[in-house]
Write a structure and sequence with these properties.
Largest sheet: 7 strands, antiparallel
Shape: flat
Radius of gyration: 45 Å
Strand content: 15-25%
CATH architecture of the largest domain: 2-Layer Sandwich
CATH topology of the largest domain: Beta-Lactamase
């Protein structure tokens, strides 16, 4: 082989050109991104997130302020009313009826002895029923129903210690009626005459709309957004089930804290640490402002609430909130951003992300926006797109140069080579091997093409040299293949005819067994149909008598001279006959007899249709079928064999599938008969049949389970083999389960069996839901119909 110079290789030449082009492109991309995109990307994205987050906080605070204002107005109104039950019920009841649907309850809760001397509990409470209407509740005033008084509850005590004019918001909890997260706004109630503490006004706010609001902001920002309350319990989360857990006191679930979520998902720990740090800062600010008042309030809230109703951490946070909210103001201009956190691998986004934490005034709720770092590079991506356009324009000259090189050093030689090879193919097809030498490939200055040319020319020389021997061998092989093909085709035809005969013989044998049972089943409805028809004939005589009386009365009325006495007598007889028919309920009996007769006829028709469906020989018809219909049809056909068994069915609603119903009926009937035959004589047999759709929604599953003698382990591996049977000679062909397995495989499904000796056997059939196309499978040809 002659090798041209170092640069004669086309791969080397193209590699050099493309390397220079890509080096230029890489340098250009690197320069644009480093000098223009990166310095601005983080700054621009952070500004957008902060502005949008502040906008979301202001939006949520508008709703919070609405409830806060409602609580203030109600507190003022309740403090100025005379303490009369009817007045409070009417005034506060009217107010509750006009509240927004998101307020699901509320009330006025008086401190002991503040409503009336010696009265421990007096509250006026309303809550929405299941229809959404506000209804008054009385149970909170009854000690036997509420052993823990409301004035020791975890939302009541903080409101009592509050010294500011805003709501004290409880932690998030789940509403037992709507099963939605909610919070309670509690506002202290003072007597307008002496400004003494009288009790608490509360409103329960449903937080369902917060989830929708967060989804809107999430769509606007990308990533995901969620809210937590003062105690860092989740108000919203993209997947609410991840932040809920069931407890003994709350079957519908309790909302977890950010720290609890971080314990189960360690990648959430950076966000949980930041939220905890913000709460600790709140506590530190309260301690710095007035440590003694803070400590006293925290201990009082913890000690005066009901047992286990509030944690020590929550009491400290509430105390700090009560102390700091005296100086709180809400300004739409100020930024609410308090922290920015890097999350190495966020467990929701499954990638690196940055979290922005915002805090709300008064409630100290926190909103967290988590954006993937990929989004932060959106500006750089936009610049890259523009850069690519510029690079494409600059790459055109390089592309033209590369095209010329390919054409000069690669395309032309290859085209010539391809034409020569095509000419060789024509000569080989015509078996003109000696003429191949005239089409040898020429020399090329491209090393790779030259190698191919030399190897091809060597091959041509060998073909020409061995042409005679190859031609003779080829002719001999063709004759042998033709002879073997003819033998195989004849054997295939004979085997297929035998297969069809075996399948139909087995089906007709099964059909013969069923005919005796069907005949017995037909006799029973025929008997009571005949009996009902005889009773109908007897009852019709009564109507003949009524017609006779009516005819006599009609003749008397048509007479030229009417005998009034005779007419009255005939009317009386006719009416008496009618009354007797009514008293004997002849019409009702006739209707019932005809209805029973029709039911018997329907039973006979059902047996006939089932027998026809089962015995249908048109096995090639495939159509949409509900497998439950096949189960019911086969149970009717096997009714006589199953009469000693307790048959239990559990059939789910199934989608129709494409199958051959006649073949599926044969499969089910084989399994039912085998189950009946597996029952000992002195044993109460139970046959359980169920249908369902698997979890992947891809297969229909049919289970046939009996409690018979079971199958030995060494027998279990052979039950689907043709002609294998454990029955006595003459009792079975050994083809039933073999044909069953073949039919299921032809439908694209599979059958499984499990058995415990002495406990029973379960056959499980799985058929695909998608359309079935019967294909020829040589490996399964034994029972192909």
């Amino acid at each position: 082989m002659k090798v041209v110079g170092r640069f004669g290789s086309i791969s080397t030449r193209i590699l050099i050109i493309l390397t220079l082009a890509f080096v230029l492109i890489i340098l250009l991309v690197y320069w644009v991104i480093e000098t223009q995109a990166k310095p601005r990307i983080l700054e621009m994205t952070s500004e957008t997130v902060v502005e949008t987050g502040n906008e979301a906080i202001n939006s949520i605070m508008a709703s919070i302020n609405h409830v806060d204002g409602l609580a203030k107005a109600t507190s003022t109104m309740a403090g100025g009313l005379p303490k009369q039950d009817a007045l409070y019920k009417e005034t506060f009841g009217n107010l509750m009826q006009q509240t927004d649907q998101r307020i699901v309850g509320g009330g006025v809760w008086f401190d002991p002895n503040m409503y009336a001397q010696g009265r421990e509990r007096q509250s006026f409470v309303w809550a929405r029923d299941e229809s959404g209407s506000m209804q008054p509740l009385e149970r909170y005033n009854q000690a036997r129903q509420t052993p823990n008084p409301y004035y020791r509850d975890w939302w009541y005590i903080p409101a009592m210690y509050a010294r500011h004019d805003h709501c004290v918001w409880s932690r998030a909890y789940v509403d037992p009626v709507s099963n939605q997260p909610m919070m309670t706004c509690a506002k202290a109630l003072y007597d307008s005459r002496n400004q003494a503490f009288d009790g608490v006004v509360s409103f329960n706010l449903l937080l369902d709309n917060l989830g929708e609001a967060m989804e809107k902001w999430q769509d606007k920002l990308g990533g995901y957004v969620f809210l937590v309350d003062l105690d860092n319990r989740f108000l919203t989360f993209p997947d609410q089930s991840m932040v809920m857990h069931a407890t003994e006191d709350s079957g519908q679930g309790e909302v977890v804290t950010a720290r609890q979520l971080a314990e189960s998902n360690p990648s959430f720990a950076p966000i949980a640490d930041s939220l905890d740090s913000i709460n600790q800062t709140l506590i530190d600010e309260a301690v710095t402002k007035d440590e003694s008042r803070y400590t006293l309030a925290a201990r009082s809230i913890l000690s005066t609430t009901n047992l286990n109703k509030i944690s020590e951490q929550e009491s400290r946070l509430l105390s700090a909130l009560l102390l700091l909210n005296i100086d709180q103001t809400f300004n739409l201009v100020n930024s609410h951003l308090v922290d920015t956190i890097a999350v190495p691998n966020d467990f929701v986004l499954q990638q690196h992300a940055t979290a922005f934490v915002f805090r709300m005034p008064f409630t100290y709720w926190k909103m967290v926006i988590v954006k993937p770092d990929n989004d932060l590079m959106s500006v750089a991506n936009a610049l890259s797109n523009k850069l690519i356009q510029a690079m494409l324009l600059g790459f055109i000259p390089i592309l033209l140069l590369t095209a010329w090189v390919f054409r000069r050093y690669f395309t032309r030689p290859l085209k010539h080579m391809a034409q020569s090879v095509a000419d060789m193919g024509v000569l080989i097809e015509q078996k003109k091997y000696q003429q191949l030498s005239a089409h040898k490939l020429p020399h090329s200055n491209v090393s790779e093409i030259q190698i191919i040319s030399e190897q091809t020319n060597q091959l041509i020389d060998r073909v020409v040299e061995n042409e005679g021997a190859l031609a003779e061998i080829n002719v001999h092989l063709e004759k042998q293949v033709a002879a073997r093909t003819q033998d195989l085709q004849q054997a295939m035809d004979e085997l297929k005819a035998s297969q069809v005969h075996l399948v139909r013989s087995e089906k007709m044998a099964t059909l013969g067994q069923m005919v005796a049972g069907v005949a017995h089943e037909v006799n029973t409805p025929l008997g009571y149909v005949r009996s009902n028809m005889e009773l109908v004939g007897d009852n019709l005589i009564r109507f003949d008598e009524l017609l006779q009386h009516t005819d006599q009365l009609l003749q008397a009325l048509k007479a030229t001279t009417i005998n009034q006495e005779q007419v009255e007598q005939l009317i009386e007889q006719t009416l008496q006959c009618c009354e007797e028919i009514k008293e004997d309920e002849v019409s009702e009996d006739l209707a019932e007899l005809i209805k029973d007769g029709l039911y018997g006829v329907d039973q006979i028709a059902e047996l006939v249709v089932s027998l026809r469906d089962f015995s249908r020989i048109d096995e090639s018809k495939v159509k949409d079928v509900d497998i439950n219909d096949c189960i019911n049809t086969s149970l009717i056909m096997a009714r006589n064999n199953l009469k000693t068994l307790a048959v239990k069915t559990n059939l789910a609603e199934l989608p129709p599938i494409q199958c051959n119903p006649s073949q599926i009926n044969q499969v089910l009937l084989n399994l039912f008969n085998n189950a009946a035959q597996a029952m000992p004589i002195d044993h109460k047999g139970i046959l359980q049949i169920s249908s369902s759709v698997d979890k992947a929604q891809q297969h229909i599953v049919v289970s046939v389970k009996d409690n018979g003698v079971g199958i030995q382990e060494n027998t279990l591996a052979k039950i689907f083999e043709p002609f294998f049977t454990t029955k006595k000679a003459g009792d079975g062909t050994g083809l039933g389960l073999a044909i069953t397995a073949q039919i299921i495989e032809q439908h694209g499904g599979y059958i499984e069996v499990s058995s415990i000796v002495g406990a029973g056997t379960t056959f499980t059939i799985k058929l695909p839901i998608q359309s079935i196309v019967h294909e020829s499978k040589p490996s399964l040809a034994l029972f192909e119909s």
